[in-house]
Amino acid sequence: MIEIVDARINTLPFQATPQAESTILHQLLAELRVLKGEFSHLREENQALRDKIASQNKCIASLEIQQDKDFEEIASKINEHSEAINKCWQYIKITPTIPRGEKTKARIEMLKDILKAKGGSVTFGEAERLLKIKPNQMTKLMSQLDKRSFETFTRVGDDRQKVIRLKGKMGIDLSRER
Known about the structure:
mainly alpha; 5 helices
């Protein structure tokens, strides 16, 4: 520090008296104290920022660990739920709908006979007319049918009629071309 002050004094453009040198020296020392105070303040700020960054890095690491745990937990729950859904779906696919009422059972048998007689398929309107039932009763009847034996589709064309079709046994298709 003294060397810096001496260097500054020696670079003065004029020859200073010892009193002037002393004054300049005191001014330089005062400036040096101010700079030292600012420097220490900046060092403290810098350390505070480093501490804050370290704290934030710890928080980020903790959040990443928690996120990984949460992800694994959510993934395992999804797997459990998907297994349960698959079991339910298999049960639904395997278990046919069993009609409850006698009229419904009789209507299903009549519908099978009608479909066999008509070549395997009829429109909903024609089935309603032949079974002598209303459209809402036909909808209820359709919900009771075993989907392994019957299928429904919409006929292509202007009217877009709904058609019920009897699926063939042993690979034999009883219906005409769609």
